[in-house]
Every structure is written in structure tokens, then in C-alpha cells.
Amino acid sequence: QNACSGVAKYAADDGETGEFKFTGKRLGEADFDEVQAWKLKFTGPDEIERTPTVMVFSQGEQLFAWYSSEGYELPATNITATDDKVEMSISAQTPDDQTIDVTFTGTVNGDQVKGEADFDLEGQTGTFDFEGSLQ
User: Fold this and answer.
1) In sequence order, which residues have a C-beta less than 8 Å from that of residue 48 and are 6 or more positions away?
2) Is 29 strand, coil or helix?
3) CA distance linking residue 12 with residue 44, whole number of Å
4) Going by fewer Cβ within 10 Å, which terminus of the chain is more open, N or C?
């Protein structure tokens, strides 16, 4: 009913392990100061054209984002917006069970964004261009 609780277990790099209790609640769009939907367009390293939607939520100075694409629903991390520069990262498992990490870095001009995305696919790295618009 829009709430959760549980026990999280962790293992640190130094070998330490432990657990802690947590609680949480689902936030709706009304809980945020601003909500924006951005429609991106790019051709990834697999040569497939994608058109994901990125929902960006602000609460005070804090930004949150959610990346939605064909087969993927992912939280974005490392989200920054300074003047007209924006950046966010996502990490996903490919259909053949490889991890791809992508960092989008762009420039916003009105309701448009353009930039480059750096990717790392199990050690294979590269970049691709992206563009998008505010919906």
C-alpha cells in the first residue's frame, strides 16, 4: 500500500558484512517540486535506434531520474544540471547478460538537449551522439 520495509544485507570491499533495517514510501509526482519528461533519440553501440523517455524529478536541490525504454526500466544515477549542462548515468544488463554502463552528457537549449554518451560494455568503450526534447 505505497510503503515498504525490510532488511538489507551488504558486503563491503574490505570483507565486512552486515545488515540494516529500512522503511520507505512511494512518492507521487505531487511530492516533487518539478517533473519533466524528456524523449531521447540515439543509436547505441549495437546499431539499434532507441527512443527512451527520461523522467526527471526535482526536490529542492536534489535531482532524480528514471530511464524507460523498450525492455528497460532503470533508475539514473549521478544526475547533475548546472546552467545548460546536464549529465546522468545508467547501468543495465543486456539480453546476453553483459553489463553496459552509459553516461549521457549534454547541453540544454530551451526544450532541446544534444550531447554525447560514453559507454562501457564489459571493457569495450566508445561514444555515441544523442538528442532529445522536452515533452
Assistant:
1) none
2) helix
3) 33
4) N
